[in-house]
Write a structure and sequence with these properties.
It is built from 9 helices and 5 strands, in the order βββαββαααααααα. The protein is of the alpha+beta class and about 200 residues long. It has 3 domains: about 60 residues, Beta Barrel (OB fold (Dihydrolipoamide Acetyltransferase, E2P)), CATH 2.40.50; about 70 residues, Orthogonal Bundle (DNA polymerase, domain 1); about 45 residues, Helicase, Ruva Protein, domain 3 (Orthogonal Bundle). The chain has a 5-stranded mixed β-barrel. β1 and β2 form a beta hairpin. α2 packs across α3, α7 crosses α9 and α8 packs across α9.
């Protein structure tokens, strides 16, 4: 229905963004990879989209690149992987790192993502390996860093993002407390990636 939206970024959070196009604000669910690529609020941005249709819900998902969107579509084509878990996968690993893990049959790395057990990791490898082989050679150029937050703000942003991903407040707080080497992490995105590994 929509291939992409181009407009002004009016709000961004680690897991969602609002894009104003011709006076209409579109709420898009996003991964941490896309969140890191967004400009500051008030700037123009183009996001590629996927419309997920359920009986009771129409939900737009936004992606900074076509490659990430295709990765998302590949993930939700796998039995047992819905949009929410696909976004968690793309938040736990960058699209390039996930593609390489699949192509190298790195079951350990894939199963380290929250919500992905050993059997699901094996299924992802079997069903996606051929599709993702071309992506695996892409060099990870590194994610754009966001400004450093004060500790209390960083904690609240991280916990809020985990809750928005579907975890309870208690789960989110416990996951935050288990983050290793917390002082070395400077962005919300890095915090969430580490927290997801402990849930």
């Amino acid at each position: 229905m929509y291939d992409y939206l181009f407009g002004i970024l009016t709000r961004k959070q680690p897991t969602e963004a609002v894009l104003e196009v011709n006076g209409v604000g579109y709420l898009l669910k996003i991964s941490l990879s896309t969140s890191q690529a967004l400009p500051e609020e008030g700037n123009p941005i183009k996001l590629f989209t996927h419309l997920h249709v359920r009986e009771d819900l129409l939900q737009l998902y936004g992606f900074s690149t076509v490659g990430e969107r295709e990765m998302f579509r590949g993930l939700i084509s796998v039995s047992g992987i819905g949009p929410k878990l696909a976004q968690t996968v793309l938040s736990g690993l960058s699209p390039e790192k996930f593609a390489r893990a699949v192509c190298l049959e790195d079951e350990k790395t894939i199963s380290s993502i929250s919500g992905i057990g050993k059997k699901t990791a094996q299924r992802l490898i079997v069903e996606l390996k051929d599709k993702l082989s071309a992506v695996a050679s892409i060099t990870d150029t590194g994610a754009k860093k966001t400004p450093e937050f004060k500790d209390d703000t960083l904690k609240s942003e991280t916990i809020m993002a985990l809750i928005s991903l579907g975890y309870s407040k208690n789960q989110a707080e416990k996951a935050f407390e288990k983050i290793p080497d917390i002082d070395s992490l400077k962005t919300v995105e890095d915090m969430i990636r580490q927290a997801l590994k402990s849930i």
